[in-house]
Amino acid sequence: MAEERLRVDALVVGGGIAGMQASLDLADQGYHVALVEREPSIGGKMIALSKVFPTLDCCSCITTPKMSAVAHHENIHLFTYTEVKTIEPNGGSYLVHCVEKPRYVDTGLCTGCRQCEYACPIDLPDPFQMGLSAHRAIRVPFSTAVPQKAVLDIDHCLLCGKCEKACPVDAIDFTQGPQDLVIEARAIVLATGYETTPRDAKAEYGAGKLSNVIDGLMMERLLAPTGPYLHVLRPSDGKEPDSIAYVQCAGSRDETLGVSYCSRVCCMYAIKQAMLLSGALPMADITIYYMDIRTFGKGYEQFYQNARAMGIEFVKAKVGRITEDEYRNPIVRVEIMEEASRVEERKHDLVVLSVGMLPAYDPRPLYGVPIAEDGFVEAACPNIAPPMTAQPGVFAAGTATGPMDIVDSIVMAGAAAAEAAAYLERHDGEAKTYAGRSISMGEKEAIHA
Amino acid sequence: MPEKKPKPETPATFARLPKEAPRLGVYICYCGGNISDVVDCERVAKVLGEQPDVIVARTNMSMCSDAGQAMIEEDIREHKLNRVVIGACSPFLHEQTFRGTVSRAGLNPYYYHHVGIREQDSWVTHDDPEGATAKAIRLMNAGLAKARHLEPLEPIRLEAKKHALVIGGGVAGLRAALDIAERGLKVTLIEKTPFLGGHMAQLESVFPTDEEARPALHELIEKVVHHPKVTIYTSTVIVATKGCVGDFQVQLRPVARGVRGVAPGIQAAIEACPVEVPDEFNYGLTRRKAIYFRYPGCHPPTAAIDWEHCTLCGECAKVNPKDIRLEREMTTFQITVGAIVIATGFQPYEPRPGEYGYGEYPEVVTLPQFIRIMAMAEDAGELMWNGHPVRQVAMIHCVGSRQVPGVHEPQPDGKVNDYCSRVCCTATLQATADLRRRFPQIRIFDLYEDIRTYGRGHEEYYRQASLSGVRFLRFHTEQGPVVIADPTGEHPLVVKVNDYLTWGEELEVPADLVVLAVGMMPGPIEDLIDVLKLSPGNDRFLLEVHPKLRPVETAVTGIVLAGTAQSPMNIQESCAAAEAAASKVAGLLSQGLVELEPFVAHVDLGRCTGTGACVDACQYEGAIQLETRVIDGKEVQRAVISPAICVGCGVCVSACPNRAIDVQGWTLAQYEAMVAAIAAEIPALVEVEA
Amino acid sequence: MGSERKPPQTKVLILASLSGGYRGADSVGQLHTDYPSNTYILPVISAAIFPESFYLNSFEQGIDAILVMFSGTDSPFKGSAEKTAEIINHAYALMKERGIDTRRLRLVAICTVCTAAFLREIHRMEALLEEIGPVSAELSASPAPEPEPQPA
């Protein structure tokens, strides 16, 4: 089979908020961009959040317009469910070999109607809902996914053929295989994002075995209007929690986990969730156990002070251990560092671990981009040119370069676009490249946003 | 009362109906059963086909398919259709697809209207096919009604000058200027003072890398100064602007430098100056002359006259008559730029007299002052201050930040600084590390509320400080530290603080030097705010449109923010923000054309009587204005829209008593027609609904 | 053609902002949750374009209820939320004058994924219409107004 090749000015790796913004900022300047996302939809971690601090905007309302803009931009070629496999330098540009994973659904035909999903008999934990509810083996990833196309998890499929029968446009194709794709790009922006501290990382906090000890992202889903239960309920028994505690720095500033850094976002997301919880559960007591409250961004300190005024309890304390009683109520052993220092055991209905950010991707093998001790991309010139890496023509944006919040990620993405643009102009040896084949139109029309 | 025009002949709703009679094509998509399983699409097509002006009404299994689109294109050509209405999935999915379809067939893309009958009908009316069909007919009939009122629209295209103005020659302004220039656009950078470099030049090292500040800064300055696309004016301010994105006409007023070129022997001329004033470079710790260099090696490498303090005595010019000219005034000049970057930076919070003993005791200094003290100190032996060796230092955080009304005294403008200044924690701990390294014998106390070493590598300063024996004391805002003279006289000062890391008991910390970690306040830019019509926020920093959707843009299209003019930031964050601002500028100007959506307000001059109600209602400065026109020999006022500034929000539409304004593409007449169509009895529907 | 006509079906007009309520309605569709078919959703850039007379005229034409689903404080436009609320208040005054139950007009903030709120508002309005019936009864009960003076 002839290898498909697309020539673009820049390749952006990762379709979360930073990757989307970097793509848009480059495309708006007239550069052709290929955006590669390994998941079946763009949107990254941000699209799964409930509301965002400090404005308390509905997160979907902020993210979906960017997702639409990416999908419809005439200069952006979007490849979802696609991974970069190898990269080779090619005289001033990079040849990037990608594989589009099989969806087992013909995206040219699929209208996102979900008939397949309704027909499918297999229920699996839904990663979009942080495993709090189920999805089918074939499904549209989530309601605002871009593209609005079904994807089949072949590993869990019984091949019963019910989806095939249900599909009104005959889009199900069990014979699909991986598709190779070569992208020739003159510059690369890495926006590979972050992962959160695994919930089972800390034995002292129950090693993930306590069902009423959840993490911040799970709470985001519980609070989201498209969440699993449409109410804030605790996982063990579906009870509405009356007492909720946040454990700050659960995975950050913790040498025992090898994470000495501050994850920057946890204070604000905990405070935001606490505020949303006091709206959703007006009778609930909310306590935040913290070491330092780091509300350093624009409008953040005021947000924190509002939360205090709303009656959310902030306790400077170290949480040593979490256990549970016979009703699965979490018991938090805290060393309180206010006035009379003392150790107490406090019972709550639900505990939220304010888990930190970990690097999601090691760029060394493929891109030759060094990482720092913390595992995030090492900047070549961190103060004056933050997105620049040691690898010529490769830039980094967003949480690939260290923990940061959405505002900082978006700004950093703009910065990476500026660096990449300057690089493209400096190395404008040949005439500007444009899409070399008709993939643009085919792909565009297949995208629903 | 303004002059009234004679009544127009046609009623309001038809005032803007195009002359060309509508020839409508209606298309209903089956969506592979998604719509047709519930909605009787054939019936919808039949009923709509009978409506006035409808030439063709068709269905298709999948209208977005190549075959479906080809059918529409062919119909447009063959039947000379001039309006197309499609009932299908949500307009968010395929409106753009079909705009492309109609425009490929030679029709203006806005001669097309999309009706969502999947998400908003068949998918929410499974059990009531009759009702769903009737709803589809009504919604589509409303679509036809709108289509009869559609007008061809063109995107608003403005020529954009490939030239940007950067205001501010600190690190953010320099960074933005370099990025914009690298992108191939012209840049003019203006700096209010005679020298470049801003506050970064006053630092010795930059956290978290501890790299030397001035070499890094000078490298950037060199790149900017030598870039062929960049022109720099020092000692220059903006006095007026006109125009909008793509075409701002900016009046600049320079002040003469007074000194020309490298001026050999200038040091002797400086020495000859009899005037001495506090040197702002060292935050008033030292003094300088009225003819001066900012610091050795500063940019530009030419001395400048400080006209505020120069007495025009001429002593310097006697030493160097060739290069020194004591004439201050220069003429203003105009440049035209497509976009403006605001990089006006910050000023350190100036504690009010008596705040923590500041201004009362010479041993109380601000962190920026302390950084200069350390820069000037000899490494050997003891750190001396005010004639005493320094043995104990107390650092106090959050001075001028995180202030609480009722606890802290308000600023002259009546506000307290309730925000966190973001950089002071790490900056303080970096200074602490420097002090510890160079003068290990000094005992250091750090009085804080929360330590906010959030950034990459910042936490390390905190960790090292703890390890190196810095004693941390945590105070509550309501019980802030108090600085008094040491009653024992052993040290100059004592800091009294209730430490909540222990039992909240009051401790007394004797100190030879108290360092106030002052926060950031925006630079004094009231004039600029006035000239550019900017909006400062509650915290007085300039306001972005939206922190996530448009984090570096102001409400004025084409004016963007870089660095600490927007909020406290460290150098790394300022540079990132500046680069993001440069991206926005490049996006706006690199094509030489700014293209904006056509959905902006439009005034029907036949109806406008110049009441000005629209101008009062409008929230976007300059989007709509009254202009004097001569009609029938009389001077009258008429509303005029600036399409580049108008955002199409439509508050003017409802405000106009004469229905003289509409938002293009979303006119009131269209809505009225749609409502009438929804309300109307459709004879063919009686059967369905019966 | 059926000779027996059902009592006139009520009609609910929904003016939904493109940045909020309209996408919210799409989200409800994604969930395949049924609601009555007498609901007609029109997309609007901002509901602030409608003068108070627009609402009254719509009722006069036979629209029985109007839900204005604006973006509230999430509106991308400065001041448009406040303006919309102000106009709706004026419209209430006009409705009272004309003898129209003001509960027929409701302003609600709906975001892109506010599916529960969207459905709640629809069901609440449907229940109200069950209770108070079509607008035509109220219109014929109160004296016909002077014809709207055409603007100059």
What can you tell me about this protein's structure?
The complex is a heterotrimer of chains A (449), B (690) and C (152). With 449 residues, chain A is α/β, with parallel strands linked by helices. Chain A has helices at residues 17-28, 59-72, 115-119, 162-166, 216-223, 266-280, 300-309, 364-367, 406-426, 439-446, and strands spanning 5-13, 33-36, 51-52, 57-58, 76-79, 82-89, 94-100, 123-125, 134-136, 138-139, 151-152, 179-190, 194-196, 213-215, 243-250, 285-290, 313-324, 330-336, 342-347, 350-355, 357-359, 394-396. Chain A has 2 domains: 5-101 and 178-193 and 360-446, FAD/NAD(P)-binding domain; 197-356, FAD/NAD(P)-binding domain. In chain A, α1 runs parallel beside α9, α5 runs parallel beside α6 and α6 packs parallel to α7 (300-309). Residues 430-449 of chain A have low confidence and may be disordered. Chain B folds into 5 domains: 19-153, 3-Layer(aba) Sandwich (Rossmann fold), CATH 3.40.50; 163-255 and 330-345 and 525-589, 3-Layer(bba) Sandwich (FAD/NAD(P)-binding domain); 266-319, no CATH class; 348-521, FAD/NAD(P)-binding domain (3-Layer(bba) Sandwich), CATH 3.50.50; 597-664, Alpha-Beta Plaits, CATH 3.30.70. The model of chain B is unreliable at 1-17 (pLDDT under 50). A 5-stranded parallel sheet of chain B has the order 10-7-6-18-31, with helices on one face. The two termini of chain B are 55 Å apart. Chain B is α/β, with parallel strands linked by helices. Chain C has a 4-stranded parallel sheet, with helices on both faces.
Concise overview:
The complex is a heterotrimer of chains A (449), B (690) and C (152). Chain A has 449 residues and is an alpha/beta fold. Chain A has helices at residues 17-28, 59-72, 115-119, 162-166, 216-223, 266-280, 300-309, 364-367, 406-426, 439-446; strands spanning 5-13, 33-36, 51-52, 57-58, 76-79, 82-89, 94-100, 123-125, 134-136, 138-139, 151-152, 179-190, 194-196, 213-215, 243-250, 285-290, 313-324, 330-336, 342-347, 350-355, 357-359, 394-396.
